[in-house]
Specification:
By secondary structure, this protein is an alpha+beta fold. 30% of the residues lie in helices and 20% in strands. The strands form three sheets. Strands 3-6-7-4-5 form a five-stranded mixed sheet, with helices on both faces. The longest helix is centred in the first third of the chain and has 19 residues.
């Protein structure tokens, strides 16, 4: 009973920690530009970080604003005929333009024109972002432009944007405007807009976005890349055009390969939609409560009631519980990992001291639970 109670308390504490934690990639209390950009990558609102300081066309902005709306999953490329004579049905932004104008996120011009190649102004950005929150023309008296700008600023949606109302905005400005919109409350409500559209997005206690849940649902991994292996063959898209982050910091492919050669291995996740690769070095991984390590297997232990399925391992004189059935099989008699092997493993660390394990030699304190394990076998 005592052991069960201690385990129960441990589980509760771990759950509480996970619920309140922020991904290693998003750890800053005040969101920096890289963090803001990553959030919009994961949400598929922007597709790359190229040309962040260049102006955005109206066609490009239509895609951004719709991808940030409740219609993000309702875009039909088979229904791309618009009412505008200057927007061909083959235009890649046509379905987004149709939704953006129908929903009031953007306006058109006299004569049935949309002008998709013209640049977006700050007043266009304020209109689109406020429309996402539910604001309409009737909410503003007098000058619509001035009224929207005043509300935009009062809601602090202008953070990190330094433009006058008629100036063209850059991709960076749009990222900041939409990110700030995600944090703002919906019209007439007291809850943030972002989590209402992206259910795996939340606002942390510091008022910034926690994209841990969004990251998990969008990423594939973890995978291991070892020195001597071809990174381009392991990624299902053109790696030369990928956005790469190492421990949350943007890096080039060349910098990533240098890290690989220096360390010997890297853990990585990727997002096929945004063509983004998240790389982690030893000691870090996707969540603050999860770590990656390398070490030698000293012993493999089995429970007293089941001598076929391993339950715990000793690696470099520290003990770890085995998690999934796949991990247990890897350490079993017929698995791929044996005593004496050097392995790379990912584990969820214990948040309490003295977590116990049922094994043949009594209660043992463990460092955490292994979720993934790989034979190292370094290549040169």
């Amino acid at each position: 009973m005592k052991r069960y109670f201690k385990k129960l308390i441990g589980v509760i504490l771990i759950i509480a920690n996970v619920m309140s934690s922020v991904s290693m990639s998003f750890a800053a209390t005040t969101a920096g530009q890289e963090m803001r950009t990553q959030v919009l990558y994961l949400a598929d609102i922007i597709t790359n970080d190229n040309f962040m300081n260049e102006n955005v066309t109206r066609g490009e902005f239509a895609r951004m604003i719709v991808k940030a709306s409740k219609f993000k999953d309702s875009v039909s490329y088979y229904d791309s005929i618009t009412a505008f004579s200057d927007v061909d049905s083959n235009n890649e932004f046509a379905p987004f333009i149709k939704i953006a104008t129908n929903e009031g996120y953007m306006t058109s011009y006299l004569g049935g024109l949309f002008k998709p190649n013209d640049y977006v102004t700050y007043k266009d950005l304020t209109r689109g972002c406020l429309a996402l929150l539910g604001y309409e023309n009737a909410d503003f008296t007098g000058s619509q432009i001035a009224g929207r700008y005043e509300l935009f600023c009062s809601l602090k949606m202008n953070d990190n944007i330094d433009k006058t109302i008629n100036e063209f905005v850059t991709k960076k400005d749009c990222v900041n405007g939409i990110y700030n919109t995600f944090k703002a409350n919906k019209k007439g409500g007291n809850s943030a807009y972002g989590p209402s559209v992206f259910t795996n997005l939340s606002v942390n206690k510091d008022g910034d976005l926690n994209a841990t849940g969004l990251t998990k649902t969008k990423l594939e991994g973890p995978f291991i890349l070892k020195r001597g292996e071809a990174f381009n063959l392991a990624i299902p898209f053109d790696i030369t055009t990928a956005n790469i982050f190492i421990n949350g910091t943007s890096q080039t492919l060349e910098q990533t390969m240098r890290e690989l050669n220096n360390i010997g291995y890297l853990v990585y996740y990727y997002n096929k939609t945004t063509k983004t690769i998240y790389v982690y070095k030893e000691g870090t991984t996707l969540e603050s409560s999860t770590l990656v390590r390398k070490g030698y297997v000293n012993h493999i232990y089995y429970s007293a009631s089941d001598t076929i399925t391993p339950t715990r391992v000793e690696i470099d004189l520290s003990y770890y519980t085995l998690g999934s059935s796949e991990v247990k099989f890897a350490f079993s008699y017929t698995g791929t990992i044996h005593v004496g092997d050097q392995i790379i493993f990912i584990y969820t660390k214990n948040e309490t001291t003295g977590d116990e394990d049922d094994s043949t030699d009594g209660d043992i304190e463990t460092e955490g639970t292994i979720t993934n394990a790989y034979i190292y076998n370094l290549k040169y």
